[in-house]
Amino acid sequence: MVGVYYDENGRRHREKVGPKALAGKVYQKRKNEVQERRFFPERIRRRDVLLADFFKDYLARVKGRLRCYREYERYAKRLGAAFPGRTLRQLLPGDIDVNRDLQFLKHVFYVAMKDGLCERNPVRDVRLFKENNQRVRLLTEDEEARLREFIDDSDWPMVAVAIHTGLRQAEQFNLRWEHVDFATGVITIPRSKHGEARRVPMNDTVRDLLRALPSRLKSALVFPSATGVTPLDARNYINRVFAPALEKARIDGFRWHDLRHAFASRLVMKGVDLRTVQELLGHTTLAMTLRYSHLSPGHQLDAVRRLDEAADERATATSTATEQRVERAAAGGGAEVAWNYRWNPSAPAPTRTGDLQVRSLTLYPAELRAP
Hints:
The structure is a single chain. By secondary structure, the chain is mostly helical. 44% of the residues lie in helices and 8% in strands. The chain is built from 13 helices and 8 strands. It has a 3-stranded antiparallel β-sheet, with no helix packed on it. The protein has a 3-stranded antiparallel β-sheet with strand order 6-8-7, covered by helices on one side. Strands 1-2 form a two-stranded antiparallel sheet. It is elongated and about 125 Å long.
């Protein structure tokens, strides 16, 4: 059945509804909205889009343009499964409590609002939780040796290169041979996490590992997939090789990103200054690198010991100056100089020197010298 009504400006509106009883209710509702100035005809026929459907549409738009596309793809799959049948308008701020999901949804709803598919962004005012990104899990030499036992020779270069370069996961798995310069010994990351280019020097271990890779003559990618055309899938490699090896080696609480921590921590423990470590890691601020400062107790001890050295130098200089003054006073005649001589109350009072800077020196007659 079709309901007909007029808005506050006298414009006629027709709205298709269900049975007669429902049409009467809708008609009365529209009249109330018009009287209360809450009537927005442009919203009446607007379709309510499912979250899962709009996720697909959004991902199709940004594919090939966002470096975080794969992460967004995972978020969309997880959220679609978490809210089956939920529409854009039905999502509430309290439904989201994970930072990564929240960042993804902020982007999604921004696009949905521009398309006119929803009137509000339910996660716009939801604040991200403060994360503790100061976690540093070290890889000991013993753990590295155990891990090596359970990873094949063909797969080990992935782990070893990460330990010796500190490259981020995406930087390493997408590395191309054109960005590896053996002449200068530098790996260039054309676009790092923060958008700018970054250069990482290679040590001899990395040079040897990369030179021995079969992909050097077969693919444009340093670590290609089986096809040789696409990069090796990081998640597949970690689930298939890295995680099982950690379990067999009984190494707990360790992630792929901790290989980057291993690179930084070993540099610091070798005495490399934090500013250099910051540059090698590609941190934009020193604050991110300071998490490794506690790993160089020996370096810090050397620093405070320099105060001891300075104190010793001052003491030596004072002692030398005093000896020179004593020699000059003794050569001046008549009296001999004694340092911290024992006081003899029955002896005549000694005569002090005229040098105000040598307050603890006294001139004693020869008969008061120590036996």
